[in-house]
Write a structure and sequence with these properties.
alpha/beta; DHBP synthase; Rossmann fold; four-stranded parallel sheet; about 35% helix; about 15% strand; binds magnesium ion
Amino acid sequence: MLETKLFRVDPLNPDEEVINFAAGILREGGLVAFPTETVYGLGANALDPEAVEKIFRAKGRPQDNPVIVHVSRPEGIKPLVTGVPPLAQKLMDMFWPGPLTLLFPRSSLVPSVVTAGLPLVAIRMPDHPVAQRLIDVAGVPVAAPSANTSGRPSPTSADEVYSDLNGKVDIIIDAGPTNIGVESTVLDVSGAIPRILRPGGVSREELVEALGRVEVAEEFKDGVPPSPGMKYRHYAPCVEMYLARGDSQLQRKTILAESVRQISRGKNVAVLASSENLPHYASFQRAFPGKFLVIELGSRQDLSPVAARLFSSLRLCEKVGADIILSETFPVTGLGLAIANRLERASGGREIEDPSRRPLRVLMVCSGNTCRSPMAEGLMKKVWADMGQPFPLEVISRGTGAVPGLPASQEAIQVMKKRGVDLGTHVSRPVTVEDVEKADLVIAMTGAHKSALLSRFPQYADKIHTLAEMVPDKVKGDVSDPIGLGEKFYEKTAALLEEGLKSLAARMAAGEVPLVKRENGEEGAPEGPC
Ligand code: TXA
Ligand code: MG
């Protein structure tokens, strides 16, 4: 473990001693975290493959994700490339120094670890006196991804770098918070139409104005990520995050409704809010002190502060112990495209569900999931369809001791066929915690099934019931096992289930069944370096 040294410098006029020291470390193959106008970078000598390897190790970055090379002046690219596409020259003249990374055919001087073996090398000239001075004095191009642990929000302050990389980097140069707050735009000008591989500090509109036509690479179009970095989860806080959609008013209503749900479950909510909606959250803040934190990102009319505060706000949500982040979304013009991209990735694309459109999920449970519960599943779906689908409903069935992969029993298939229910494609499955988590209502065929479920999933006791408990006037006691008892008994079981489920469905449609709505995020926390 390295001893990480922190140096504070004036961003406009950095201390030469510090710059010389840091430049020396770069030349000797060490790692220096430094500010740029976008985010902090984790730099190494781009011409030294071993030094660049260190970046990957320090960040825990996948080897197939190439890094950007930083130069301090446009001529700096010459030894690194075999040619300069005409459009690239124009863009360099217009946007460098600045948050625009361009792809060039790579020269043999660039180690393959830098480009992850790709033929193009990404280069940019940062618009920050500290970065420029450092690269200049080092006298080498500097390979630098964002100075965060891979997958985490990019750092916009030295403290954030420190919290991710303490002990993994030789020095951190602290020049205060970065200005833009989202990373550079990565643009591929090697093809016929320039393509934005990552939206960033230079907007699509600015590029369109300069070039006429620009494409934005669709993420994962045809399953192939346009930029290697885009296939990885990024910018993710260690707290589950959900996005609100729709106009500004709908967003705040959705957020407030979801907050009530979450707070009633004992969760602490953090909201990333637009300035416009801020006053509307005030009464909630008073009503739920310590449970409902609102962080102002900025105005929908001026997205620069939103971009500048975005990553640090995600980290702040972690610090204050939020259990869930609910974020507003912003217009996608100008910096908004980059903001939308980062929000999308930080949340894993999860949205706050509109409760009026969320299907209810019913889980039917018996022992082997070959007779009673598949019959109940099929019948419930049919009954619901016959009632004209009062609201969206999903029904599945599982067994407490099911052997996976068995078909429904022949008799079950027969008696269901008579009722217009096809169990021919049913396959048995054992019940899992995810099944129970996702369900709003779990219906056990017998008291023994209920007990088995309760002992395995006590945390979900409030949604586990026997059918008899739900419709005591129709079903008395257990729905007993017909297996091995012949078709007649199956017929009796089917009739009992049908009667019971019709009644249950009618009660559900009338809103008389206490449903434990599943929580957001039950799909499991997104993977990330948390
Ligand atoms: O603003 C920025 O660009 C910051 C500061 C430090 O300069 N750097 C930064 O680097 O964000 P990083 O490594 O976190 O993101 C670089 C992005 C990744 O999506 C990567 O896949 C892409 O650029 N990239 C780098 N080299 C590439 C190449 N040769 N071909 C295609 N994409 C490349
Ligand atoms: Mg990064």
